[in-house]
Amino acid sequence: MNLRWFNAVLWGNSVALSWMWGLGLFFSVQMTFMFGLQGLLMFAVPNAIGLMLFGFLTQKVARSHNGGQESLAIFFDKFSKPFRLVLYLYQIVALTLTVFALVKYLFIPLMVGQLHHAPLALKGLYLCLIVFVILAAGCLFGEEFGIQKIKWSHAIMGMILLGCVGIILVGLEPFFPKPFAWTSPLQDDWKGPRFNGLAIPLVIGLLVGPWLDLQHWQRAIQIHREKTSIQASYFFGGIFFFLTLLFHGCLALWVMGKDDDLITAAKGLDGFKYAHDLVVEHFSDFKGKSIMSPLAYFSFLGICAITTLDSGYIALKWFLQKNVEKSDNMLISLIPKQILGSPIPTFIVVGLLTFVGILVRLELEYFMVFYASFFVGYAALAIARCFVPNSQQPLPQIRMFSMASMSLVIFAFGYLNSQTPLLILGAILPLIYVSWLVFNSDLLRVVTEKAGEVIEAASEIPGIKAIAKTVSVATASDVVAPVDHHALGGHFEGKWFVYSMIATYADTNSVGNVYFGMYGMYVGKTRELFFNTAMPDFDLKTTKFYILTRSFEHKFVREAREFDTITVKIKVADFNRKFCTLEHQVFGSDNELLGKGKQSLLFVSAKDYALLDIPPEVYTSFIKYT
């Protein structure tokens, strides 16, 4: 087998295992319990397709951006900025859901017999210890195996998992459920609104779900760095994941056909029947000849949970450390970076949420509603920002959060009252809003661009040119010159570095206008001050690299005269693996636009002037100003 294909298979196995969180593990049993084989396929098929689509589309993103092996990493740095809080919340809910499901549907059923008459305090102590052990195991494996090694640890886990499946199949005589039917024996309890109302939200949520998962983004970036096909890796991952879900769901069907008394599932707080622990109950009271089948099944659940938790630990560590390094927030600077960049505090929060969820008798579905409603809009907008140019406007955080919360409440009302229209509305409302948001942003962009073109063209007409001296250009409205007309060393206004100076006689030509070549000098001076501010430790005597100008372009719009205040704004517009693009704008005394342009920088070795990739210290210094 070709090494790249072998690597893709290894990563596919890791993708499948990391996606087998609580939702995949125990919800597959519940869907089979509710709707039979049709429910299992309704859950498994879009889940697998969602993984494959993520791999297929992120491969396109990586190829469409310059930067070679780092193209996807560079893209994610820019793409993830407005989604940082949502990405973090998504990971917290996913990890909490996994730990909660493992505790409630595996350990608690196994403990019921032993602790039935134990004091409440002792039960609480056992619960705390179980949660602690699960989280500690996730931290241990995550710390031991980084993203470069995780495919190998998961390969070992995958082989053990395959062995467990084999032992389970051999121990079941025979592995053919009696009602291996399209519908469940309890179909009458769930038919109609419940099936139709869950089908559409599940399909939507599962198809877009991977786009907000840090684990998948980190994997896709690492796969691309290893020059392996992301598309092939996620194709294999989708196949492996589908087969695992199919096995677990069919195992539930077998249990339902073998033990009819287990079909009488317990009712939750909402009055609905839940049977996530159906298979666990069967194996905890296994009447077979060997103890191997129960041990194999419990090991199967444990491996699926651990390979999710260690992936979550590694992804959180990667994500938190990157954002802590870039943050210049004063409050954040007061807390040690070792704490802020560590996943341990997040895992503690996950443990507390799990403990509270167990105490108030929540069910897995109460976590699942977030993925069918709350996160749908964010995930859809994330996809749009990857492929639709007009969706690159600033993210309306308050509006998006309000819409997400509203859709969550609508879906919850629909679920609790078995109202199909509300269930469907809660899932599609965020999609409708995001579509409108993208379309509306497109109109705004077109109008703004056309207005700017009209203003620039009109400014060349002599009559308007005279009036323009007293009118501020809309694009310059956010530029305010310092009170004393000169800020020593310049200053930042948002992402723009701003420096002001006064034109004097030496800057003018024979007719009193500022000489055209001086504008390039002004931009160059501002650029050097920007470098000095962004990289204060740069020393020309000890540096291992030089920053050179690759190209420079400037469009002249208006003229300036002697003693006019010249304000130059400059920022990082774009960058790839080799080159960095700076954008600049020049304004006059009355904030009128004098000119604008851009320049491209390259980096060479101080020793032999060989072309270099963007040095890490430059990347770290510049990235927060993009």
Overview of this structure, please?
The protein contains 22 helices and 9 strands. With 626 residues, the chain is α+β, with helices and mostly antiparallel strands. It folds into 2 domains: 3-441, Sodium/glucose cotransporter (Up-down Bundle), CATH 1.20.1730; 471-625, Thiol Ester Dehydrase, Chain A, CATH 3.10.129.10. Strands 3, 4, 5, 6, 7, 8 and 9 form a 7-stranded antiparallel β-sheet that branches. It has a two-stranded antiparallel ribbon with strand order 1-2. Helix 5 packs antiparallel against helix 17 and helix 6 (120-144) packs across helix 13. The longest helix is centred in the last third of the chain and has 39 residues, at 420-458.
SSE topology sketch:
Layout: H1 3-18, H2 22-35, H3 37-64, H4 71-79, H5 84-111, H6 120-144, H7 150-171, H8 187-190, H9 193-208, H10 214-225, H11 230-258, E1 266-267, E2 273-274, H12 278-284, H13 292-326, H14 330-333, H15 337-340, H16 344-359, H17 364-387, H18 397-416, H19 420-458, H20 462-467, E3 491-493, E4 496-502, H21 516-534, E5 545-556, E6 565-575, E7 580-587, E8 593-605, E9 611-612, H22 616-622
Antiparallel strand pairs: 1-2, 3-4, 4-6, 5-8, 6-7, 7-8, 8-9
Helix pairs in contact: 1-7, 1-10, 1-11, 2-3, 2-5, 2-11, 3-9, 3-11, 5-6, 5-13, 5-16, 5-17, 6-13, 6-16, 7-13, 9-17, 9-19, 17-18, 17-19, 18-19
